[in-house]
Amino acid sequence: MSDKNALIQPDRGQSATAIHLVDKDGLDAFRKGLNGAQRAALDAQRFVADGYDHAIIPDGEGWAVVSGVADAANLSSWCMARLAEKLPAGTYRRVGGEPGPAMFGWITGQYAFERYLSEPREEGPRVLLTSEVKSIEALSAEAEAVMLVRDLVNTPAEDMGPAQLEAEAESLQKAFRAELRVTRGDMLEHDFPMVHAVGRAASRSHAPRMIELEWGDPKHPRVAVVGKGVCFDSGGLDIKPGSGMLLMKKDMGGAAHALALARLIMHNKLPVRLHLLVPAVENAIAGNAFRPGDILKSRAGISVEIGNTDAEGRLILGDALARAGEGEPELVIDFATLTGAARVAVGPDLPALFARRDGTAQALLDAGLESDDPCWRLPLHEGYREYLKSDIADINNAGTGGFAGACTAALFLDRFVPKDCDWAHLDTFAWRPAAKPGRSKGGAALGLRAAWHMLASRYGQNGA
């Protein structure tokens, strides 16, 4: 795509095509202010101010755009995104108000994943002007973080393995002068036994590793951000059917969210001591693959019976969460494409949110609604812990009975987080099955903006 930093520019009176945003309640009044030719143009295009609908009307010697929105006084992130996708290249200005949060969708609406195309589309940018100069950088940074998630998730596993996730962390380390530590090689020797077990069957080029980045003043509150980095999930010996593997390049979507959130934290200089952790593996099949019925040690000292090798994400997260807890963080947030059960429960658009503390859960829910990135809370129900019982180990990695799959997965993770730690877990899909305005089909950041705005509010960067 074109330079995303140029898609929103300060309004200094440049020549620009006018955009009128009109809701159904204001349509009659808007029509009264038009001349006959303009009203005739609206009628010819059957414009009734439906959301995302737009029409072109004559405007002097040029033309203007009229677009329907749900509420012209309270714009959403997405209400101008369809315009950014459909209008010709050029410069535009909203008439009668500022674009506000719609600047975000204006940028993301021009996203395209073109890495593998022989002939990428050749379209100039649609530039939007605004007098809200202070908002440009903040919303652009959020849009870039969302598009980073899209890029990482859209990239096939051959080009987005553990080494490539490490490279992304290294680029953050260089950009923000952070500290990077990567544990490779014998993961058993470094006490990451579950990361080792899940990743040991992969080829040497996709060897497992634990990626850790630290940034910020050690005196500031310590926040750990953890992301599941299964770069491809075959299911292991409990192999998935072919149809189940088609989207498994996205099983590192949690890692993509964690990297993007870390970038937002550092870019905005949030006053926290950040600890980013990405356990990066490929769940492959080979003679040395871990097996159903195996008993794994864990970094936390909890023994785990393997009921299903396709429930591998929670294993590597268990080691990562235990490692995060060693730093005694004030807050831990993890992202993971963890369960199909969460998708059955809340569908592809809503991350399933689990949290120990009601206040943290509500802050995430509120931040999600305010930033057009909603989440939905599911319970850490104590009664479901019995589904994870093992006769020969401390816990089983796969729940029995087929009930509450997302909840039991979250309860598994809960065992590896220190008991007194504030913790939130987002079971995200990281994928959009069908395009919506500003939200392309493919890799998707779901829960990222909710987490960022919650952190920004909690740690003193209100309005970031």
Automatic annotation (TrEMBL):
GO terms for molecular function: manganese ion binding; metalloaminopeptidase activity. The lineage of its organism: Bacteria, Pseudomonadati, Pseudomonadota, Alphaproteobacteria, Sphingomonadales. Residues 308-315 form the Cytosol aminopeptidase domain. This is Leucyl aminopeptidase family protein. GO terms for cellular component: cytoplasm. It comes from the Bacteria. Belongs to the peptidase M17 family. Pfam families: Peptidase_M17 (PF00883), Peptidase_M17_N_1 (PF21337). GO terms for biological process: proteolysis. CDD domains: Peptidase_M17 (cd00433). Keywords: Aminopeptidase, Hydrolase, Manganese, Protease. Coiled coil: none annotated.
